[in-house]
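for the recovery benchmark. tokens below, seq after
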């Protein structure tokens, strides 16, 4: 968190720039996207006149208003309104524009819209607010009023159609009754007087005449035009239109957005920095010794014992820097062989390829070198040299013992031997108990021991190896290794071992720039000065051979 705070302090100008940019954008939106809203109010009457068929309770009127508000903005209704409105057609709007620009609300939301726009209010019913939005005040007023009037016309048409259907149904019943009455009269005429048939026909005739009288009354009171409990309570006007652009809200949003954008940029920059490890940062920020770098080369992983010339030159420099920086002691010679652990903090960093290539390079330089595969869980170093078997190996020597020298496989390259990983050990404590004797045995027989160790955070084995070696080479993927992870690795190794730590940057974009010269931490530099004062040689002898 402290690192991000310091990054924010250093990059404050990014936040200022983002604030200025978002504020300018807010003013631009306010200027070019200003719109106007106008509202008209429809009243849903709760109680009609005593003779009105539209009498309803206040709750029923509220339910109807809710239904009407949702029906009003449907595609079918707005298409009807547009088709029957000459002003809307002449204004250049389409039915699809009405769908996008017209809203309807009922109840409390309608009352709020009425207070903001049209001031008309009423009691005894529920209001529906129709709000239209347009870039022009006059267009918003026309849209709101035409939609309100058009909806009343739409509902009136529906009511008239229902009334016409009712009138038609009553007439059909009236005609049917007339036919039944004529038939009953004919039955009476044909039957003998006072006969049961005549009496039944007479009773049926009286019933039919009563029904016709009731139908006649219904037809008489049926209105010529349907009534409605909807009415326009208030029309929209130019004076009641309102601008919808809220500059204060836009500025508030732009302020928050500017700060967030600035912080995002700063975090992104910090993240990119954390992924890019350089020699300077190793020494200045992480206090680690820089040994050298290796370029990104796809062929290196598959042929580490025969690397390209660019890789070979850098490996030679790394071998020299192991001594120049004090990672390993000056004297590499049996019976006091130096031991270096090659490890990494992430998978696929290239530690095995680096360890194998370093062993081959030093062997060709005249050093009798032993490469130990310390990956006891998954041995793999033997594959680099073309061996198919990894037994017997270090794991077998730790578990069951055996002839140490016989376990070493001679490699095709003179001067280098390989101790494979062997079988996995059943208990990791065996490593701490028996490894010191094994290393001491080989110290007396070779000049340099390189341990291709496991990943640092992959278990306890790497920590055990680190406590028994003279120096540690940490192979780091320069592209994808956060500085915080590298700092954590340094702290862990410093707690476990007093052995100096050097870093090799693999897949480096700057490979070849530093070449022979290393970046030395303050601790390593102090060690080198003390050795120089005592007269010890700094240049390793194999450099002379390889020149």
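predicted aa per position
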């Amino acid at each position: 968190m402290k690192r991000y705070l310091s990054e924010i302090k250093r990059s404050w100008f990014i936040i200022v720039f983002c604030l200025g940019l978002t504020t300018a954008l807010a003013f631009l939106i306010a200027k070019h996207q200003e719109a106007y809203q106008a509202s008209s109010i429809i009243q849903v009457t709760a109680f009609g006149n005593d003779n009105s068929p539209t009498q309803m309770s206040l709750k029923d009127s509220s339910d109807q208003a809710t239904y009407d508000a949702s029906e009003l903005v449907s595609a079918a209704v707005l298409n009807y309104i547009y088709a029957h409105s000459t002003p809307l057609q002449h204004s250049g709007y389409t039915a699809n524009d009405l769908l996008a620009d017209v809203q309807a609300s009922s109840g409390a939301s309608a009352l709020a819209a009425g207070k903001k726009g049209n001031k008309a209010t009423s009691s005894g019913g529920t209001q529906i607010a129709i709000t239209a939005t347009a870039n022009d005040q006059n267009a918003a007023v026309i849209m709101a009023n035409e939609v309100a009037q058009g909806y009343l016309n739409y509902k009136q048409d529906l009511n008239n159609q229902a009334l016409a259907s009712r009138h038609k149904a009553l007439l059909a019943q009236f005609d049917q009754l007339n036919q039944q009455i004529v038939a009953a009269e004919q039955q009476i005429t044909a039957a003998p007087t006072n006969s049961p048939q005549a009496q039944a026909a007479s009773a049926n005739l009286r019933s039919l005449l009563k029904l016709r009288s009731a139908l006649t009354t219904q037809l008489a009171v049926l209105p010529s035009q349907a009534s409605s409990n909807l009415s326009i309570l208030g029309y929209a006007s130019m004076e009641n239109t309102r601008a919808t652009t809220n500059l204060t809200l836009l500025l508030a949003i732009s302020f928050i957005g500017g700060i967030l954008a600035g912080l995002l940029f700063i975090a992104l920059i910090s993240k990119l920095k954390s992924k890019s490890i350089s020699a300077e940062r190793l020494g200045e920020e992480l206090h680690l010794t820089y040994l050298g770098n290796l370029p990104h080369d796809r062929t290196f992983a598959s042929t580490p014992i025969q690397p390209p010339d660019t890789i070979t030159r850098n490996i030679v420099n790394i071998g020299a820097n192991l001594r120049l920086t004090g990672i390993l002691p000056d004297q590499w010679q049996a019976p006091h062989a130096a031991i270096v652990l090659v490890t990494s903090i992430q998978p696929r960093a290239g530690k095995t390829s680096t360890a194998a290539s370093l062993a081959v390079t030093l062997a060709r330089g005249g050093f009798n070198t032993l490469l130990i595969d310390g990956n006891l869980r998954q041995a793999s170093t033997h594959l680099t040299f073309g061996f198919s078997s990894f037994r017997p190996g270090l794991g077998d020597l730790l578990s069951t013992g055996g002839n140490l020298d016989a376990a070493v496989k001679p490699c095709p390259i003179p001067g280098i031997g390989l101790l494979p990983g062997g079988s996995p050990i059943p208990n990791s404590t065996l490593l701490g108990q028996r490894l010191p004797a094994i290393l001491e045995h080989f110290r007396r027989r070779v000049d340099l021991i390189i341990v291709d160790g496991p990943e640092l955070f992959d278990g306890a084995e790497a920590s055990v190896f680190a406590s028994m070696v003279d120096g540690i080479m940490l192979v780091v993927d320069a592209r994808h290794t956060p500085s915080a992870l590298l700092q954590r690795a340094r702290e862990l190794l410093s707690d476990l071992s007093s052995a100096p730590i050097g870093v090799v940057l693999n897949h480096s974009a700057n490979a070849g720039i530093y070449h022979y010269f290393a970046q030395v931490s303050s601790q390593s530099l102090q060690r080198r000065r003390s050795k120089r004062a005592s007269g010890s040689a700094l240049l390793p002898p194999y450099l002379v051979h390889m020149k």
